[in-house]
Amino acid sequence: MEQEYTITAFTENAVGLLNRVTIIFTRRHINIESLTVSASAIKGVHKFTIVVNTSKEQAEKVVNQIAKLVEVVMTFYHTNEQIVYQELALYKVSTQALLDNKKVEEIVRTHAARILEVTPDFTAIELTGYRHEIAELFRQLDSACGVQQFTSSGRIAIHRGKHEILTEHLSELAQAHGGQSIEMVSEKAWE
Amino acid sequence: MEKITGGEALLLSLIEENVDTIFGYPGGTIMPVYDEMYHYTHRIRHILARHEQGAVHAAQGYARVSGKTGVVIATSGPGATNITTGLADAMIDSTPLVCIVGQVGAPFLGTDAFQETDFIGISMPITKWSYQVTDAAEVSQAIAKAFYIAGSGRPGPVVIDFTKNAQVGRCDFRYQKCSFIRSYVPVPRVKEEEVAAAASAINEAKKPFALVGHGVELAGAEKELVALLEKADIPFGWTLLGKSVVAANHPLNMGMVGMHGSYAPNKKTNECDVLIAVGMRFDDRITSNLNAYARQAKVVHLEIDKAEISKNVKADFPVLASLKESLPLLTQAVAKAEHASWISSFKPYAEHELTKVVTPQLHPSSGDITMGEAVSLISKKADGKAILVTDVGQQQMVAARYFDVNLPRSVVTSGGLGTMGFGLPAAIGAKVAAPDREVALFVGDGGIQMTIQELGTIMQDDVGVKIVLLNNSFLGMVRQWQELFFGKRYVATPMVNPDFVKLAEAYGIRGRRVSERAELEAAADEMFAHKGAYLLEVAVQPEGNVFPMVPAGASLEEIRFE
Q1: Is the C or the N end of chain A the one with fewer CB within 10 Å?
Q2: Which pLDDT tens digit goes with each residue over B211-256?
Q3: Contact A68/B at CB under 8 A
Q4: Measured between alpha carbons, how far is B436 from B464 in angstroms, rounded to an integer?
Q5: How close is the nearest chain B Cα to the Cα of A150, in Å?
Q6: pTM to 2 decimal places
Q7: Domains, chain B, ranges and CATH?
């Protein structure tokens, strides 16, 4: 059965790694719904958050193949129930239209969206939420005053588990290699 | 200390990694490296191939026989793209390679400069790791990492894209071997509970059957495997690349499994109660239809690569570890057992195959020479001691079936990728790795012409390979499929061939063509008596087929004998 899975990969900051990761999806003809790459809490470690619609079996195989990449520290996958996740969206509407239609302000309030910037020409609105909430705000704003520009980010997520799997993994590795701290290990690897 | 060039740093790094042989081909962007080689000819032997594809396949043959990492050097652009087939082949067959390719100077990257190609991009899906060196100071670290990654865990090919400015730039040379990369755990730690679970499954088995793959050879765990099989009395079949893991004449050896494997081990895969897969990846040429493959069996899978476990066949008892570690632990944990009646139940199937296929192949009374009789005669002459190299196609399958090898690391063939043209250059590499052993190459008239230019390499470097060309004037395996599955419509398979013996002679290689059964033995004797390379062309049955055969996608039960 296909469903949404969020795949998380912690990686070294290496040139071309993004390509190596995405190839694994394209090979299996799995479309990436959303992809976010950013720094993680640990110095020098990057975090890929990838959302795909696929079966559990495929998700598992893909995770194993990503984990196998030399520069990937760790990979896992979660269902939506296992994570806290959000996306960020920006909307641009005409300031005049906003002033003309009082409903717009009400829409912004009921969605707990924020107004980021107001100029004589446009107003920028921000919403953090689930994709369906972002879509709903778009629908309402668009019908109330017309949305001039819209963009939304990929998903970011943290899992609901008690333990920070990555930190534990890195400490274990560090211990196995002479008890250096995590940062020390990283320097030694390339020195 | 005086600074040296990046090119010299590369050669010194290779020497630090105990490299004494390189297969390569020079060109514009790699010339500074070749220039430095001028001063290191006493330390490193460079074998000049006639095409970069030849160089990379030779390095693969070298790596497979020696157990060392094969090294290839080529120039940028076409030089690099010409090695891609070898990279793909080495990737799927887990062969350790370090391929150093030239690249335009860093300031020209991305400008479509002369002979620039994004080789890191091109090679990404078919390399274990790749790295672009843009500064001479990076050379030693990059090479150390390259060798560590190529050779550790499940081996594979690595590409180092070496920009010209980094080759001529200067650096201090300091070498430190790499033995740890935090994001890379090549050998998973063996879990005692996994071993215990696998052992109890094996102990409960009444009809255990093992599948032996290339992984055993890569781990150097041949003896450890035999200890397990003998203690628990487990009959086994082998994959194409696992052929030389256990000697052909071992009493538990039931033969090859898969599409052209033997009847008994294929049949018994679907009868056993516990299937023990050791260092193999359940390729579709082994399993055919997965929905009808070993459904009755509990599957024990010993593997080093987690991504292989339950990829194709669900493992009930995975043991994720180096075979060198897991096999002895498993042997310790299993009870001594005897499965005499199970083992003897293989016999009727083997006899059926003998009557239906083997005897007519190996001992035909009349008609054209068969591929099988040529292979088996040469096998007899080689006495189990030669290294077997094959190309891809019918001769490959016939050689796998009828050429006996009794020594480890003695089979070099393109398994996963099925690369025609692999054989001749791979045989060169095999012979360079083991100059004191006979190397017998079986190749077809199609495959040899894909890389026939490497006869020049044999001539120049005096590489004494014995080339057995089984010539049926067809692209034989494709023709066999056309005959069996495409209504005998022969499209693009008949071959009009050159005079191969004359061609060999032009390269200074002794040759002989045999078309009469009576001449075959004398010709084989002449070949092995001759010092140096020899081409024995055998004109075989034009429309000979390889049987048994499990048609692609069929179940193992649908094995065909004709």
Answers
A1: N
A2: 999 999 999 999 999 999 999 999 999 999 999 999 999 999 999 9
A3: yes
A4: 10
A5: 33
A6: 0.95
A7: 4-171 (3.40.50.970), 192-347 (3.40.50.1220), 368-539 (3.40.50.970)
